[in-house]
């Protein structure tokens, strides 16, 4: 079983492994939230908080968000395209094992006492030898390069599979939206991952070979790091969003008892979102002294990206409105996703306004936006997708009553946990701080965030428990478990 190259088994491995990392990242988040639940807390030292903060971000963004979607794509693509397997089965298996090894390598830093602590964004010069002399940043750099190899191999495999392996008659205007989303994300990975891999390699050379790419004292450019990193990291947002949007676009019509409204528009909007996404990385750098003309251009482009995203939202709403919705557990997650998508999108357009971004960029408002975009827009489709395809994965149904209860716990916990962060940010709470004094007006919102985080964590555990029990004891699924039409 360990040596298999079967796409279904590899897909399930990705999903299970990604959920294991999700739980690890969740534990790190809850420890940080205990620290921030009240002012002047001493549970964590600044160094411990920095380490947890970094590994939480790395885990959720790089070890959970994309791998779990790769699991769906690995399992479903050959079935949807009518191919026997992925184009390169051994490369497919290698990509999984490289991802797993990279995750284990990064977490081995805990027993070694060299945990990466420069933030998931790893800004220089704070991560140079002058300020971080241990092996922690080197471990992060090597782990990210290995993850880049895994991601690039997987992306190439998806692209070739679509181009060379799809069944005769499967024209591009008949592709499922999840295929469009994963294809677009794969092309983006092939373009963007070399940028961040180069950045980490140059940083490793600065730290270990005496080069000065980012050392301003030797005519290096610290800002070059941010350009190389965000040229990758902003498209990465859409890499972990577009396949999730594809899950919703393909599964939602089952519960609305009608085809997706405006299929062609949704497919085009998927590609347009990624194309524009490559043009807006500088909005992460508005406060770095960028020229006014560039600020105007990238601010306008950042607002423009809301247009193709809105096309998909209106298509989902029209599908629900003109259909006959059946309120089963997957449908609830997909409907919740639309709400998370709108909230995250609105806060994103707000920070695209340069003067407002200058005020909010280093506050918890951006943390709230990040979690709605990267977590809410990913987790809700993933949970709904697992529930939807669970009969395909296991031959059994998840417990419907417990599943609905789990959805409400997840929805309430998520919004109670992350919406108050907007308030904390508007009240001026900085990002990346390990504690704060009393009397700043942040006490209540931080306490609510901590409570909501634990509720959300409980919801995730409920979902995992439901999946584990149902896989062994669930009701056996019929040939058409959701009563889909046609």
CATH level 1 class label of the largest domain? Mainly Alpha
Under CATH, the homologous superfamily of the largest domain reads Cytochrome c oxidase-like, subunit I domain
Assess the beta-strand content as a share of residues. Answer: under 5%
Number of strands: 0
Oligomer: single chain
| H-E order | HHHHHHHHHHHHHHHH
Spans where pLDDT lies below 50 across 5 or more residues? none
- The count of helical stretches stands at 16
Question: Alpha-carbon distance between the termini?
Answer: 36 Å
The description of the largest β-sheet is:
none
How many domains? The number is 2
- Cα radius of gyration in angstroms: 22 Å
What is the annotated CATH architecture of the largest domain? Up-down Bundle
Structural overview:
- Helix 6 runs antiparallel to helix 8, helix 9 packs antiparallel against helix 11 and helix 15 runs antiparallel to helix 16.
- Helices cover 72% and strands 0% of the residues.
- It has two domains: 240 residues, Cytochrome C Oxidase, Chain A; 236 residues, Cytochrome C Oxidase, Chain A, CATH 1.20.210.
- It is globular.
- By secondary structure, the chain is mostly helical.
Short description:
This protein has helices at 7-36, 46-81, 89-107, 109-112, 136-165, 177-208, 222-239, 242-256, 263-277, 292-304, 306-322, 329-352, 354-360, 364-394, 400-426, 443-473. It is an all-alpha fold and 486 residues long. It has 2 domains: 1-240, Up-down Bundle (Cytochrome C Oxidase, Chain A), CATH 1.20.210; 251-486, Cytochrome c oxidase-like, subunit I domain (Cytochrome C Oxidase, Chain A), CATH 1.20.210.10.
């Amino acid at each position: 079983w360990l040596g298999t190259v079967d796409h279904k088994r590899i897909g399930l491995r990705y999903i299970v492994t990604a959920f294991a990392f999700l739980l690890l990242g969740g534990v790190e988040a809850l420890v940080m939230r205990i620290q921030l639940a009240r002012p002047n807390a001493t549970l964590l030292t600044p160094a411990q908080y920095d380490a947890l903060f970094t590994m939480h971000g790395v885990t959720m963004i790089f070890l959970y968000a994309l791998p779990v979607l790769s699991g769906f794509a690995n399992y479903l693509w050959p079935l949807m395209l009518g191919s026997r397997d992925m184009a390169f089965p051994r490369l497919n298996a290698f990509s999984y094992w490289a991802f797993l090894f990279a995750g284990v390598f990064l977490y081995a830093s805990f027993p070694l006492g060299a945990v990466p602590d420069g933030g998931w964004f790893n800004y220089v010069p704070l991560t140079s030898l002058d300020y971080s002399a241990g092996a922690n940043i080197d471990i992060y750099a090597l782990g990210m390069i290995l993850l880049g190899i895994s991601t690039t191999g997987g992306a190439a495999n998806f692209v070739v599979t679509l181009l060379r392996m799809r069944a005769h008659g499967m024209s591009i205007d008949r592709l499922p939206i999840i295929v469009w989303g994963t294809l677009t994300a794969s092309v983006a990975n092939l373009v963007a991952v070399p940028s961040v891999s180069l950045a980490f390699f140059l940083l490793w050379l600065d730290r270990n070979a005496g080069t000065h790419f980012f050392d301003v004292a030797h005519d290096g450019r610290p800002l070059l790091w941010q350009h190389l990193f965000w040229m990758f990291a902003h498209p990465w947002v859409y890499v972990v969003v577009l396949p999730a949007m594809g899950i919703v676009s393909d599964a939602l019509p089952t519960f609305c008892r009608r085809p997706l409204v405006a299929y062609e528009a949704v497919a085009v909007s998927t590609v347009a979102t990624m194309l524009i996404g490559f043009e807006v990385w500088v909005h992460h750098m508005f406060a770095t002294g960028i020229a006014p003309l560039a600020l105007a251009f990238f601010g306008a482009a950042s607002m423009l990206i809301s247009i193709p995203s809105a096309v998909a939202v209106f298509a989902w709403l029209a599908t629900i409105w003109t259909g006959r919705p059946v309120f089963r557990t997957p449908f609830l997650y997909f409907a919740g996703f639309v709400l998370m998508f709108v909230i995250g999108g609105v806060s994103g357009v707000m920070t695209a306004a340069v003067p407002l971004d200058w005020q909010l960029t280093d506050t918890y408002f951006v943390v709230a936006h990040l979690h709605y975009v990267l977590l809410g827009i990913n987790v809700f489709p993933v949970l709904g997708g697992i529930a939807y395809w669970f009969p395909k994965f296991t031959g059994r149904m998840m417990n419907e009553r417990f599943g609905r209860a789990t959805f409400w716990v997840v929805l309430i916990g998520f919004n109670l946990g992350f919406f108050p962060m907007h308030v904390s940010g508007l009240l001026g709470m900085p990002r990346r701080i390990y504690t704060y004094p009393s009397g700043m007006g942040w006490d209540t919102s931080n306490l609510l965030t901590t409570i909501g985080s634990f509720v959300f964590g409980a919801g995730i555990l409920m979902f995992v428990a439901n999946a584990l029990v149902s896989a062994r004891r669930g009701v056996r699924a019929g040939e058409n478990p959701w009563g889909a039409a046609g």
